[in-house]
Amino acid sequence: MEIYGKYAKVKKLSGEELKASELLEHVKRYVTEYALGRILKGIKLEHIDPVTRFYILWRWTYNGQEIEYDDARILSQAVGVELEKIWGKGNVVQKSGGKIKVLSPQDRKIEEIKDRHPMILIDALHKACLLWHAERGKELEIFLGSTGYLNNPVFWETVQALSELLPSGDKEKMMIQGLLLKAPAVIGEERQITLERWSG
User: Fold this and answer.
1) Among candidates 84, 161, 95, which has minimal Cα distance to 122?
2) What are the start-end ranges of the H helices in 101-192?
């Protein structure tokens, strides 16, 4: 930004003028991608949907806090999410007046989590946590199988990264760690999957 401010006009290679707002959007995106890369430890971001990226960044930045709408909007825009489309019943975001809160699995109900195709990773994780917590192992296996996440290494690596991100004593962390104990094992360099028993 310092270099940008030294010139009356900055142009792209195409010859078009690069506006300050456009430069700020690029900076936000690069900073966001860098932060997610650090949190997700090598998982390719193109494999993670924007809503899940938003959720992970929220938990990393604010944990469970409720914040002002404008601050939440800035974070959502950095990952390409329209905040208004992910709040309300069945969604991961709750709006109350001018405040926004991102919901943890324990704040949600199994039957209200929207079944989308493809299923948003964080919604699938939350539903899986709730099924695990309710000791509904067979339903859990069927659900994750139907979404394609049961044998998906990116899903389990993202779940592991989120577990490491959350603070000790956090209810969501405990649910995720319990779920991870029942997870398929990802083995070998080729990331082959071997299944453990889910029920019981």
Assistant:
1) 161
2) 121-133, 137-147, 153-165, 171-181
199: pLDDT strictly greater than 60? no
Q: How many domains does the chain have?
A: 1
CA neighbor of 52 nearest in space, from 151, 134, 143, 126: 126
Q: Give me the residue label for tokens 């310092």.
A: 2
**Residues 120 and 51: beta-carbon distance below 8 Å:** yes
Q: Tokens 């430890």, residue?
A: 41
Percent of the chain surpassing pLDDT 70: 76
How far does CA 119 lie from the centroid of its chain? 12
What is the DSSP-derived secondary structure letter of residue 114? -
In which domain, by residue range, is 144 found?
Answer: 22-194
pTM of the predicted model as reported, rounded to 2 decimal places? 0.79
**Tens-place pLDDT, residues 17-61:** 756 555 556 555 656 676 667 777 878 878 899 999 999 999 998
User: CA-to-CA distance for 101 and 172, rounded, in angstroms?
Assistant: 15
pLDDT number for residue 44: 81
Domain presence at residue 131 = yes
Q: Which residues pair with 99 in a beta bridge?
A: 68, 96
| Domain contains 200 | no
